[in-house]
Design a protein that fits this description.
Length: 231
């Protein structure tokens, strides 16, 4: 005998709605700068026995309550735990350079800091995308920017990062012609979001940015390969 049919009507699952809901849970709602020198540890497929360290820029609280480390990576401010590329790097863990301890999850004190701040700055949701928070860049990160395909590239220092209500993060660059005071601070009107002016921007740590500015041949070759792969 065949199985009896349920009298209830079948439920239609909207996969796009489910995907959007899951993505929304990963949206950032609060940032906290990393000021104690903690690092992300990662590996490259070509060097499986070697571990690399990268300073963490900030920690982020997601809508689902999870805390993640954040590093400037390629074209975005990336979650450390999401890095899983054979070519560019595979996340291993976090590291305290003072003790050489490697751990899998963000430190408790950053979790409590972010949750407390998010509860205090409880922004009311609105239909428009609004600015939630600004933090300074403490690592000397630079952006290699291009306005349109035929325009030259420009290397610009990043002064800070903006978090918006839709969970997106943008780098803050300076329009030098509008700068009236030094040093440039986050409240200065000469700052603008990288995405508002530049079609493409790649983020680099300070020492890599300086090699590019010095036109180091090996670094320029690696940059050319990266850009071609990105296209």
């Amino acid at each position: 005998m065949g199985a009896s049919l349920s009298p209830r009507s079948a439920q239609v699952i909207d996969l796009e709605t489910v995907r959007q809901r899951q993505q929304a849970q990963k949206c950032l709602v609060r940032l906290a700068p990393e000021l104690d020198g903690l690092e992300m540890v990662y590996q490259l497929a070509e060097s499986p026995d070697t571990y690399y360290g990268m300073p963490i820029l900030a920690w982020g609280l997601r809508e689902d309550g999870n805390v993640i480390g954040l590093v400037p990576w390629m074209e975005t401010l990336a979650a450390c735990g999401d890095l899983n590329s054979q070519e560019n790097g595979h996340f291993v863990g976090y590291r305290d350079p003072e003790t050489d301890e490697i751990f899998d999850t963000p430190p408790d004190h950053k979790y409590h800091e972010l949750v407390a701040a998010a509860e205090y700055f409880d922004y009311e949701a609105s239909g428009e995308v609004t600015l939630i928070q600004q933090i300074p860049d403490t690592l000397g990160t630079h952006a290699l920017c291009m306005t349109h395909p035929n325009a030259p590239w420009h290397m610009k220092p990043i002064y800070g990062w903006r978090l918006y209500s839709d969970g997106s993060v943008d780098a803050l660059l300076a329009d030098e012609q509008k700068a009236t005071m030094t040093p440039i601070l986050l409240s200065d009107k000469c700052l603008y979001g990288a995405r508002t002016r530049h079609q493409t921007a790649y983020f680099f740590q300070r020492h890599i940015a300086n090699r590019i500015l010095e036109e180091d041949p090996a670094t320029l070759d690696a940059l050319a390969m990266m850009v071609v792969a990105g296209d």
